[in-house]
């Protein structure tokens, strides 16, 4: 059975469809703040939403496709603008103040906080590297993140590849 997800009515509703989008399986009202993006995490069978400074996590039932709130992970001081799967049950979220948080979705807690830029435009995991963009394109090896090197020492580790991006 195929399942698809979408947001409706100015990003205030999360709608789950089944059977190639022909039938609504469930709807969830998101509240006044709504959401900007939907992220499906295959390993944990959860849906995460970006666009506010907290990370709502919803469990999806594999049979009924009903959504139930699992957690509201907080810690970002600014709007979450990007999200990317890392390994297994880990995801990385980035906010518009340049903070990246590594979350463990099984334990439902933050594993690490990295202050990497002034403003984060994009965040993506590629193999064993985390790529992020501010005014430059940067690459960090995940092994260095896993070692939890203190923040003052991380600054020298961050720019293995750095390319100035053209101004918009």
What does this structure look like?
This protein has 168 residues and is mostly beta strands. The chain has a single domain (3-164), classed as Methylamine Dehydrogenase, Chain H (7 Propeller), CATH 2.130.10.10. It contains 2 helices and 15 strands. The chain has a 4-stranded antiparallel sheet with strand order 4-5-6-7, with no helix packed on it. A hairpin with a 3-residue loop joins β9 (90-95) and β10 (99-104). It is globular, with a radius of gyration of 17 Å.
Q: Radius of gyration in whole Å, from Cα? A: 17 Å
Helix/strand order, N-terminal first: EEEEEEEEEEEEEEHHE
Which percent range fits the helix content? under 10%
Helical region count? Answer: 2
Present the secondary structure layout.
Layout: E1 3-8, E2 13-18, E3 23-29, E4 37-41, E5 46-50, E6 54-60, E7 67-74, E8 80-85, E9 90-95, E10 99-104, E11 109-115, E12 122-126, E13 129-133, E14 136-141, H1 142-146, H2 151-154, E15 162-164
Antiparallel strand pairs: 1-2, 2-3, 4-5, 5-6, 6-7, 8-9, 9-10, 10-11, 12-13, 13-14, 14-15
Short characterization:
With 168 residues, the chain is mainly beta.
Keywords for this structure?
168 residues, mainly beta, Methylamine Dehydrogenase, Chain H, four-stranded antiparallel beta sheet, 5% helix, 52% strand, globular
């Amino acid at each position: 059975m195929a399942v698809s997800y979408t947001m409706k009515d100015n990003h205030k509703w999360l709608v789950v469809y089944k059977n190639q989008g022909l039938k609504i399986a469930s709807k969830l009202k998101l509240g006044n703040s709504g959401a900007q993006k939907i992220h499906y995490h295959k390993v944990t069978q959860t849906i995460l939403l970006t666009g506010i400074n907290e990370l709502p996590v919803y469990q999806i039932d594999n049979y009924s496709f009903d959504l139930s709130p699992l957690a509201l992970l907080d810690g970002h001081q600014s709007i979450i603008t990007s999200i990317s799967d890392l390994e297994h049950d880990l995801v990385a979220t980035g906010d518009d103040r340049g903070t990246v948080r590594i979350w463990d979705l099984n334990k439902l807690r933050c594993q690490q906080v990295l202050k990497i830029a002034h403003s984060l435009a994009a965040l993506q995991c590629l193999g064993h590297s985390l790529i992020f963009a501010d005014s430059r394109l940067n690459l960090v090896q995940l092994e260095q993140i896993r070692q939890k090197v203190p923040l003052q020492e991380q600054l020298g580790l961050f720019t293995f590849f750095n390319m100035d991006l053209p101004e918009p």
